[in-house]
Structures are given as structure tokens and as C-alpha cells.
Amino acid sequence: MKHFRKLTIPYIVWCVIFILIPLLLIAIYAFTTGGNEVRTLNFTLSNFAKINEATYIKVFIKSLELGFLTTGICLAAGYPLAYIISRAPEESQDMLIMGVTIPTWINMLLRTYAWMNLLSDNGIINTLLGMLGIDPVHMMYTNFSVILGMVCNFMPFMIIPIHTSLRKMDHSLIEAAMDLGANPFQTFRRIILKLSMPGVINGVVLVFLMAISSFVIPKLLGGGQFVLIGNLIESQFISIGDWNFGSAISLILAAIILIALRLMKKMDLKEVEEN
Amino acid sequence: MDKIIELKNLTKNFGNQQVLRGINLDIYQNEFLTLLGPSGCGKTTTLRIIAGFEEPSGGQILFDGTDISKVPAYKREVNTVFQKYSLFPHMNVYENVAFGLNIKKMDKALIETRVNRMLKLVGLADFGARDVTLLSGGQQQRVAIARALVNEPKVLLLDEPLGALDAKLRKDMQVELKKIQKEIGITFIFVTHDQEEALTMSDTVVVMNEGTIQQIGTPIDIYNEPENRFVAGFIGESNIIDGIMKKDLLVHFDDVDFECVDKGFPENEPVEVVLRPEDLDIVKPEDGKLTGEITSVTFKGVHYNVMVKTKYRDYRINTTDYWEIGTPVGLTLTPDDIHVMWKTQY
Amino acid sequence: MRKYNGFWARLYIAVCFAFFYLPIIVTVIFSFNSSKSLSHFTGFSLRWYSALIEDNEIVQAVYVSVTIAVIATIVSTILGTMTAIGLSRSRKVLKDAILSINDIPILNPDIVTAISWMLLFSSMGLAKGYFTMLLAHIGFCTPFVITSVYPKVRSLDPNLANAAMDLGATPVQALTKVILPMIKPGIFAGILLAFTMSFDDFVISYFVTGNGVKNISIVVYNMTKRINPIINALSTIVIVVIVAILIVVNLTPRIVEKRAAARRAARDAAGAAAIESSGDSGIYRPSEHRHRRIGAGALIAVLGIALVAGSYAAAKKSSSSSAGAVRELRVYNAGEYMDLSLLDRFQQEYNCTVIYETFDSNEMMYTKLLAGDQYDILVPSDYMIERLIKEDYLQPIDWSLISNKDAIDPNVMDKAYDPGNVYSVPYFWGSVGILYDKTVVDKKDLKDGWNLLMNTKYKGNLYMYDSERDSFMVALKALGYSMNTTDEKQINDAYEWLIRQRRTMDPIYAGDDVIDNMISGNKAMAVVYSGDAAMIMSENDKLDYFEPPEGTNNWYDAMVITRDCRNVGLAHDFIDFMLQEDVAEQNTAYVGYSSPVKAVYEKMQKGTYAGIDAYVPRTGYGKDEIFGYQDTDIKKLFAQLWTKVKAQ
After folding, report:
1. Nearest to A178 among B73, B88, B90 (CB)
2. Could you give the CA distance from residue C143 to residue C197 in angstroms, rounded to a whole number?
3. Set of chain C residues whose Cβ sits within 8 Å of the Cβ of A210
4. Phi, psi at residue A203, to the nearest 5°?
5. CA–CA separation, C140 vs C104, rounded Å?
6. Cα(C490)–Cα(C476) distance, integer angstroms
């Protein structure tokens, strides 16, 4: 049926211009040092060599740490919620999932700003604590505030894929397991958890990706001393003007994510093979 | 034989709907018992209550004399073969079958022996490493059976397991299942809406409708001596006619008196008469007790399904002869062919 | 076995939802707060909503966000749907290739995608602004549409289109009458997804926009430096609109469906008589599918309303800058450095539009210039002006057009960065010092000068300024060096000083957010500019300002005109306007910085800022220096070192 094939042509053109060429540009900038005006094509690895300094390595490590932590918390807190929702009556499920999704529709900056106010030294939480006679807690500009902001922002993206795969699961499988003597805990571990793995992996990848590349939340909730990969890239392009270095860091970030994706895909396949 | 399961006055409500209205049933060891009835009659609900997936709203269920209504499914000594097999897609055939034994933390070597023995029994000896999602319907079904039986339950529950198979395979599996049951020697409780299947396989048939048991009996009893209109209509094809029992051994319908073999009804009692299509003979009009005209002839393979229009009604007759539409004919029957039932109270 | 959950399960759901909705609820409540406070609800008021509508910048931003979202959604839906349908018929190789490429914008972190487009537009020589933002939004929405629609297309019976054509339909008709209706759920999902992604976007918009075009996210981002309850009002409106859209889209089909079902039930109940009287009520009517169309209609209606609202906002904007006037002035100034109501006044008096943007630092401003962003008036600092002059970015001031030139205090004129003030007109001036809480900091510790900031007694209780030159100035001065040094060893010592400070003192690197924080007394000390100190001290009398004996930075900010200024006359009008006595007075009173207009400077010392020494910075002190020009390599060195200090 060849009739509709030509419909793809506009997008193919678009892809080349707006996806492939820009990526190529990043690569070119990353491997040259000509700067922004004169792009003298002298290939060099100096940009990458710069990254190899202790401070920058620390930035990468910190981003990875924060990424893992955020993903871990989202998974630990999000899976139970997804599971509970999947066990609710049908109409309630749709409403509950909508309830989880609505915050993501509201502009992320507005929500982060709201957290800034909540957590500030004389914000509501500290005011309430004051009324209870507790000393104000310094929450802003700390690891805590950044992780809190990221978890709050990203948890729905963990919950929704997990819920989808739990919902699709054939419930008679649970009955079958119980029929064969597995108690609820064993049923969960051997059947439900394993079958919801695709959703879990989906969610983990999504959240991890967003967490390690985020720069707005660390900047607003963490302050100037929170330099993660995203902040590093942003400062190179906006304040410092070293586009070559910035491109090199971006390439490395993209590479990290690609590797993470490959690893996750392998884990998913490995699971299936083992069984 | 001892009773293994007793259902005493089981009722079940789902919201406002009453699905079971008082089920009383004794199930014995080593029997192949079938719950038979149309969709919505409550047979699957009854099965699920026995399995432990539903709690009865009222009544008791006794297993070996003890009330198990509150015992959760995973602690009962029954296993189920599900309608859609419900095999675990992330495990292969071996792991599926071994699941229950793994839960019991049995010795690995012992598990291996048992699983392989069971796979052999169902004819899937070399299938252990196979992906269950790639098996055919019939193979999946056998894995499901193996998975259930390997746990050596006291009772096996089967929820319309043959529904998804094609006609030939179905017939073969009916024979297989019966064979397995005899070999293993445990009680099978089988649920189906297909009366032919029930008659083929069962030792006991329990006909259900609208949450109540209509009749319990052997296949022959159910077929030959239906106790009410529903059973008569559900099992096999029948012609059901309103008549009057003039006296013992004599029934009157369609303006004709017929000799029959039933008795014990009050004189002139209004009754219902059941005539099986294969029992009526088509003869020349002058030789028949009733007369009529052929209105339709449908070829069924094994026989023709012929409709004869008489004065009061259309009769359905199964015969191996071909008849032209419009031919005037007569109908005869022997006293044995007539089965009289009490009139159904509505 | 889907039992409804027990108590603990429901509690957990409640806790999670509380967590998600807490910021939203608090925002909504405080949007009605009668005071500026974000912790005490003093009373119900709609003042922030009226302030919101008055705020042109926000209204403009809403217009931008909404229109771009609508247009991008429409274009990406069409493009994406076309592509999805085409892909389902394409050869496997092409299909896999396109789908993989399609994944790239989805899987790539948005910052990488953002800069890839920034590089693209810069290479293409495309001026950044509304159009580039639109292109970028289409760019990241289309892949999402494709991933929503393609699975639906793939699940269709491949013979459907054939069947239609077998019955005489042209390919186009087969598409519109058969395929499109069947994939509608996928298209709707795609539309919703595209709209959300576009409306919510910040990172990509931030990098690809220019020329003063801002969407809601960018405006909020810029506003986060100061406490601003207007944002709460904006958030509340956004929340209400979004929830309304969701409810309409999800509930309308169900309500109509219920009504149709009730109608049908009533019809059945009426029985045989009804059949006879109404003829063919048993026969299916196409109108029963109305409920689906109503859902679609509701969505389109809402989008339409959004467009109308947006157009109203645009109309309002153009009316506020008077009909027919196309005169535009692009001004790029530091943040929190001007009373914005003066802009409104200027626009009205001079019948023009001012596009006003702010930068966080001179360096950021310079980078933007380098990237090709265009402005008419800049307000850089001394050393940056020196650089801009050297690199030929500026044009000379025509002093004959500055009627207020004699009002300028001669003491702020003719400095080394621009001898004779050929290119610049003073804007504000001052020093850098330490703002400290008199009740916390021991007066004796002040003798340490800048090393007060290394006194571990105050660990965790101070703000440093997030600016490389100012922080290095502190370090260099503390070590007794010149802040204009190019000696690499000295620079390195300063770097080590800052690292040590980071490790032992745990400072917070703040920008303009230091203002509200010190007004609230959140920390004991802060490195601030004199003007900010004056403003803060006028609101918190526990604070005092001091300029250390090692010397500090004596700085001057001035207005300059770029070489490619499009309206030189208007630019001079603006500069002259700023020097007007009443304007300068209002500006200095609002911002707190020392005015270059002599009469105003003296007036403030007797009035608004009487007794506040920060308003009268130290002058003529030998150890104070003005920042000088840094060549590119040294500049880069400072930049990278500062990043490293922050990244510790």
C-alpha cells in the first residue's frame, strides 16, 4: 500500500534540519576551539581534556549521585502509590491518575517557585514550626531542598508508567499464583513485581534522565553553589561564552544518558532471558 | 465413597444482584462432576467460591468436614485450571509447572522428578524450556493442567477450560481429561455451558439456572428424565408439549391419547410432555398418530433436522431420511419415547 | 480480585497527594493574601490579580506562551499525524530510522536539545525571537505527537484503506473518512501532550529566544530573585484554566453519553407504541455519535478561547503603547536596577515601546552581545564599558541632545574607563561592602576587614555575591593585592582563598535574592553593593554597612548606546529622561543606589536615606579601585576559576 508513503517526506526534511544537523553542530563545536565567530576547524580534544579536572569530575559525580538518589526515592515512594491505585475500582483509577498528572500540567517553574516560598527561612513551614515552638529549620539552598524539588516534580513520571503496566496485568495471574499456594507477599514478589518490570524500567529511565540533566531546580532551590552538569552547561553558554567547552560537556551528558539507556535495555532483556 | 466437599445453602450477592440463591450440593471423592448451565447461572461463581477467590454471602462450604469459608485461596488444597490458562508469561513451561512446588520450598531434585512426570502425563515431555507465550492453545491448556495437578490437590477445579479450542481438539481433550482423572484418581469439578461436553465426560451433572440447582444426576438421568422444563430444554433438543395426565400410563395432548410409561400423577393433572426429536418417526399420514406437513429440512451431517407443522404446533424431528418440503406426513412414537414432567411453576 | 484498598493504602494516597498539591494549594491561598507576606495570611484581597493584569510584561508573556502553544500544537499535530500515517506504510528500514531519530528529542535532556538549536539558529544567522521559539516548540512537540499517534495507526487493520478505495473512495477520502476517524484517540492524546509540553517549557525557550520575547516560564524565572506575590496570582489562574480544560475534556463526553443512554432507556421503556409512533427508533442514528464530537468540540472551543484571550492581551499591549507608533527601544540593564513604572511613563510621554531585558551579570550581557543579540541601550559597569569601547560595540554620545547634562555631579564624570565620557552617561555609582547584623556580629571583628568573611564564628551565616569579579575582588583585597592584577600567582592565591572560604565558612552564593533575604534577616552578613545595602537598611534597622580598610571596588554604571542602535534620537531621549530630576529621584528612591544627579543625591541624604551610610559610599580612598579592562584570556581564567569555586 504505497499511497501514503509520501506523507513522511516533510518530516524527513524537518528531521535532517532540526535534529541531525544541530547534533552535528554540537559535535563540531565540541571538537574545535574556534569559538563562536570564527569557527576555525582545528580538531582538538582540549575541550574534553578540560573536563578531566577534579572540579568538573566532581560536578559529574554530584549530578550522578543526585540523579540516583532522586530516582531511588521516586521509585520507593512511587511504586506503592502506583500499586495501590491499580487495585482501586475502575472509575476511581482514572480519577486518581488524573490527580497524579494534573500537577505536571502546571508550569514547572511556577511549582518550583511555590516550593521556594514554602521552604524559605521565613516561609510557611518554618512559621508553622515556630508556632509549635520549634526552631526554624534551614531548608533552602541545601541538598534537601533540591532533592525535594526534584522528587516532587518527577515522581508522576515514575508512577504513571508503573501504573500502566500494573493495570494491563492479567489479574487472573494473581489468582493463579494464590491458587498454587503463594501467599500475598510471595505473589507480589514472584509475579506482580516481575511483570511490572517494563513499567519500572520505563519510569526509572525517565526520572534518571530528567534528574541528572536538570538545571532550573538546582539553581532555584539550591542556589549558586549547586553546580550540576546542567548548570555547568548553562553557565558556559550564557555567562562565560565558551561554547566549545559547553558543547563538549553536552556531548558527555548525552553519552552518559545513552549508556544508561543501553544498560537499562540490557537489564530488561536479561530479565526475560533468565526466565 | 466419602464426601469431599459439601455446599450448604450457599448464597452470593454482588451489590444488588443475587447470583447464588441457596446452593446445596455434596461432592464425592474420585468423581468427575460437572456444573452445567447457561451464562450467568452461577456455575463459575460457585467454582470460585470453592477455590477461595470469592467469599459466600451466606451458607457454608465444608471441605473434608471442616468449614473453609474463611480460609484464603492459597491455603486450600484445591487447584484451578483457568479459562484463559493464566500461565505466567515471564516463566517457561518448567517454571510454570514447578511454581506451586517452589512455593512450598520442596527439594529441587524432588521437584524435577514430579514436574517431568507430570509433563509426560500431559504429553509435553520435552517442552520444559519452551516459552509459554509461543505455545498453541491446546499446549497451553495442558501446561495449565500440569501446573495444577503437580501439586497433588485433593480436588481439581476446571473453569470452562476447553472453550477456546477448536472442535476437533476439544473432543480429543475431553477424552484426555477423563483419562487423566481416572488415572490420578481425584475429584474433578468441571464448569461448562456445553451440554454435550457435560454428558460426555461426567459422572455427575449438576444443571444450574439463575443461581439455583435445577437437577443433579448422571448424564443418562438428566437426558432421559429431565425433572423440569428448563432441564428438558437445556439438555438435548426437545419438543415440550402441554398435556393432561388422564390416569397412570395414559397422557393426552394434541387431541390424542398416548400410552406412556409414567405414573404417579393425580388424575387429569396438567403436565408437560417431553418428546426427543430422534424418538419421533415420520411415516405415511395414514400410519401416524399425528398428521402434518413438512415445512423445513436442514442437513446437519449426522442427520436431517426436519420441522413438521401439525394442527397445534411444529414438531422437530431428527431423521436420516430426506423429505420434500410440503409433503403431507404422519408422526408416530412408542410409549417409551414419552416423558412426562410436572408442570413448571413460574 | 480487585478489592478496594484498606485504611493504610488510602492514607498513603492521601499523604502522596498532599505532597504533590501542597505547593499548589498554598499558592492559590496566598494569591488572595492582602499583604506581601508569604507566611502570614493577613486578609483576603484581589490586589495581586489587578497587579497581574496591569503588569504588561506578564500579560505579554501569557500571550506568547498561549499563542506559541496553540500554533505549535496545531502544526506539530498535523505534521506528526501525517508522518505517523506515512510511516505505517513505509519500508522497515526507513521506518526504523525515522522512529529512532524521532526518539532523539524525547530522550535527549532538554538542555542539550536547547543548545543544539541555539547553535543551529546562530549558524543559520537567524535572529532569535518569537519565530525561533515557535520553530523550537514545533521541533519538540512533533516527536510526542508521533509517539502518540503511531501506535494507533499501527494497530489498524491494514485493509481498511483498501476497503474504502474498493468502494470508490480516493486516497484522500480514504484518509479523511476512514483512517483519521479511527485514530482520533491517538490524535487527541497527541494534542494534549503537545500543548502541555509547549506551555510548560522553560529550558528550550530560554535558550532559543531573543529580542525581549519571553514566555511565562522565562518571566517567572527572572522574577524569582525577588519575592513577588503576583506570581501566585498567575499560578492560580494557570491552575484554574488547566483543571477546567481537563474536566471539560474528560467529563463532557461522559455526561453526554449518560444523557444519550438515558434517552435510549426511556425510548425502550416506552415500548412498542413508541416504535409505531416514531417510526424507526430502533434504527441507529448517526446523531448518537455526537458525544464524541462534543468532546472534540469542547477542546477546540477551549483552545479558541485561549487564542481570543491571547489576542485581547496583545490588543491591550498595543493600545497601551498607542496606536500607530512603531518606535521601539531595546534596553538591556542589570536586574533590580530600575523602577519599572518609569518605563511605562517614558513609553507614554514619548509615544514608543520599550523592550526591557535584564542580565544577572556584566559577563552574561557580554556573552549575549557576542552571540549576536541586539540592543539599543546597555547599562554596563565601568570595566565592561572599557571593553565594549575597545571592541567597537558603542557609538559616541551626542551630548548636545542631553539637556540635563549639567545636573550630573562632576565627581562621577571623566573616569579612567571612559575619559571625557565620550561614550557613556553615568547611571548609578557606589561601592561594595559588607552588610552585617549589628546584633549578631561583634564590632571588634570588623577590624579584620574582608577577612571577617573568613571568621568561622559566623560559619554558615553569610552570603557571598554570585559574581566572579566581585568575589575575586574580595579575595584579592583580603590578600592585599590589586583587584586588577594579571599576575597568575596572585590570581591563584585568591582562588585558594575562595576555596578555603567555601570549605570553612559554607557561604551561600546569592544574586538579587540577597535583598529580600537580608531584609528578613536570614543571615548575619552579606557582600552587597552599596545601593542594595541602602535599600535593605531602610527596611531593616538592625543592619549596618561597612567598607573594609583593605580597600574595595569603587564602581560606576553608565548608559551607553550600541553601534547598531535603531533609533538614536529616541535613545538619547531615554538617557536624558533618566537624568531628569523627578525621574532620577524616583529611581534612586526605589533602587537605593547613589544617584549621579547632584541635586537628587543631596536630597536623598536628607530625606529617604538620611543616616544610612550606605547611600554615601566612600570616595577618594587610595586603596579603593575601579575595575579595569581584562583581556580575554584573563577573563576566561576568572570565569572558569569561579565556576570551580562554586562547584566544590
Report:
1. B73
2. 11
3. 109
4. -65, -45
5. 10
6. 8
Name the residue with cell 484451578. Answer: B80
- Taking one residue from A and the other from C, the number of pairs with CB-CB distance under 8 angstroms is 296
Of B52, B78, B86, the CB nearest to A176: B86
Strand-pair category, C377-378 with B78-81: unpaired
Least reliable range by pLDDT among A156-160, A223-227, B151-155, C11-15: A223-227
d(CA B32, CA B174): 12
Q: What percent of chain C has pLDDT over 90?
A: 29
Q: Is C200 on the interface with A (CB under 8 A)?
A: yes
Q: Is C170 on the interface with A (CB under 8 A)?
A: no
Q: Grid coordinates in use for B234?
A: 437445556
CA distance B91 to B72: 25
> Is A213 in contact with C109 (Cβ distance < 8 A)?
yes
A41-to-A31, A35, A273, C612 alpha-carbon distances in Å: 9, 10, 47, 56
Residue B241: helix, strand or coil by DSSP?
strand
| Minimal Cβ distance to C13: which of A81, A107, A254 | A81
A227:C517 CB<8 A: no
CB contact under 8 A, B74 and A275: no
Mutate to test the interface with A, among B55, B85, B91, B103 (most CBs of A within 10 A): B103
Reduced 3-state DSSP string for C270-304: HCHHHHHHHCCCCCCCHHHHHHHHHHHHHHHHHHH
Separation of alpha carbons C2 and C521, rounded Å:
55
Q: Are strands B256-259 and B304-310 parallel, antiparallel or unpaired?
A: unpaired
A 10 A CB-CB count for C294 gives: 16
Chain C residues with CB inside 8 Å of A233's CB? 111-112, 115
| Chain A residues inside the 8 Å CB shell of C108 | 254, 257
- Domain count of the fold of chain A: 1
Residue A62 sits in which domain range? 54-274
Give the model's confidence band at C89: pLDDT under 50 very low, under 70 low, under 90 confident, else very high: confident
For B239, left (φ over 0), alpha (ψ -120 to 50), or beta?
Answer: beta
DSSP notation for B80-95: EE-TT----TTSBHHH
Whole-angstrom distance, CA of residue C132 vs CA of residue C127: 8
How many C-beta atoms lie closer than 10 Å to residue B101's C-beta? 23
A1 domain residue, yes or no: no
Sheet holding B32-36, edge to edge: B78-81, B155-159, B187-192, B32-36, B204-209, B212-217
C221–A216 CB contact, under 8 Å: yes
Residues C597-640 have pLDDT tens digits of 999 998 888 888 888 888 888 887 888 888 888 777 888 888 88
CATH number of the structural domain spanning residue A240: 1.10.3720.10
Cβ <8 Å between A170 and B99 = no
Residue A209: all three cell numbers together: 534522565
What digits encode the pLDDT tens for the residues C125-177?
A: 888 889 999 999 999 999 999 988 998 888 887 777 777 777 777 778 778 87
HSE on the CB side for A264, CA within 13 Å?
Answer: 19
Domain contains A159: yes
How far, in Å, CA of C595 to CA of C603, rounded?
Answer: 10
What are phi and psi for residue C444, nearest 5 degrees? -65, -30
- The answer to whether position A226 is within a domain reads yes
- Residue C253 cell numbers, joined: 463526553
Asked if C431 contacts C617 with a C-beta cutoff of 8 angstroms, the reply is yes
Residue A175 lies in a domain: yes
- Do the chains contact at C636 and A53, CB–CB below 8 Å? no
| pTM score of the predicted model | 0.77
How far apart CA A79 and CA A164 sit, in angstroms, is 12
* Chain-chain contact of A181 with B91 (C-beta, under 8 angstroms): no
